[in-house]
Amino acid sequence: SKTQLLIKKKILITAGPTYEAIDPVRFIGNHSSGKMGFDIALAAAENGAEVILVSGPSSLSISHPNVRLIRVQTAVEMFDACDSVFDSVDVLVGAAAVADYRPKHVADEKIKKDADSFVIELEKNPDILATLGNKKKEQFIVGFALETTNEIEHAKQKIVKKNLDLIVLNSLKDEGAGFGKPTNKVTFITKNFDIESMPLKTKEAVASDIVNKIIEHYA
Ligand code: C5P
């Protein structure tokens, strides 16, 4: 039923959370399920694209001949996996909820609960989208933004800072949207700051809208 309008296009997609180790059994993570990224991967593959899906820990799986799934744990691993293929791809979609910080030191042994208080020093993770966006050549780059205040303004700043072509803004204020939900309500903002607000849709339908934006770019 799908068109093959993305045939010969190579698409790199990040998905899911990252887990940043504290000690051998503990980590800092987040509630991302990976569903948005996996749905985009499937929609792109069904349109003939060759997809590399780099996912943090997720219970989801994907089975399509056009999709290569690379599973990673940390932001640094996700960055390395993306960086090593970036020059060869046409499109990058950053749908992962990457941890902004990681513990500066990872304990070799499980940390004991002896102390009454305990501080974990954090250091900044690489911004995958910003790093790759700022060295892009012809690539079409799509990012996500989840904001709670001044959403449009912050999303526009993100387009500039990360050198994106399109940003998909999720509002936390919208009922049914976001983490762990099957639906999303998004606003598309292009690099020219054209704004298009979409109604509440399933994540599959949002994925299909995003893939259609990629198709339109090449039309
Ligand atoms: O800066 P912020 O985290 O709000 O930007 C969100 C966008 O940037 C998402 O597309 C996310 O996948 C990407 N991102 C990234 N690497 C990071 C942080 C965010 O690729 N370290």
UniProtKB/TrEMBL annotation:
It catalyses: (R)-4'-phosphopantothenate + L-cysteine + CTP = N-[(R)-4-phosphopantothenoyl]-L-cysteine + CMP + diphosphate + H(+); N-[(R)-4-phosphopantothenoyl]-L-cysteine + H(+) = (R)-4'-phosphopantetheine + CO2. Residues 8-216 form the DNA/pantothenate metabolism flavoprotein C-terminal domain. GO terms for cellular component: phosphopantothenoylcysteine decarboxylase complex. It comes from the Bacteria. Residues 11-219 are annotated as: Phosphopantothenate--cysteine ligase. Transmembrane segments: none annotated. Its cofactor is Mg(2+); FMN. GO terms for biological process: coenzyme A biosynthetic process; pantothenate catabolic process. Pathway: Cofactor biosynthesis; coenzyme A biosynthesis; CoA from (R)-pantothenate: step 2/5; Cofactor biosynthesis; coenzyme A biosynthesis; CoA from (R)-pantothenate: step 3/5. CTP binds at D100, K110, P126, D127, I128, L129, F144, K158, K162. Binds 1 FMN per subunit. One of its GO terms (molecular function) is metal ion binding. The keyword Heme does not apply. The keyword Ligase applies. Its EC number is 4.1.1.36, 6.3.2.5. Keywords: Decarboxylase, Flavoprotein, FMN, Ligase, Lyase, Magnesium, Metal-binding, Multifunctional enzyme. In the N-terminal section; belongs to the HFCD (homo-oligomeric flavin containing Cys decarboxylase) superfamily. In the C-terminal section; belongs to the PPC synthetase family. Catalyzes two sequential steps in the biosynthesis of coenzyme A. In the first step cysteine is conjugated to 4'-phosphopantothenate to form 4-phosphopantothenoylcysteine. In the second step the latter compound is decarboxylated to form 4'-phosphopantotheine. This is Coenzyme A biosynthesis bifunctional protein CoaBC.
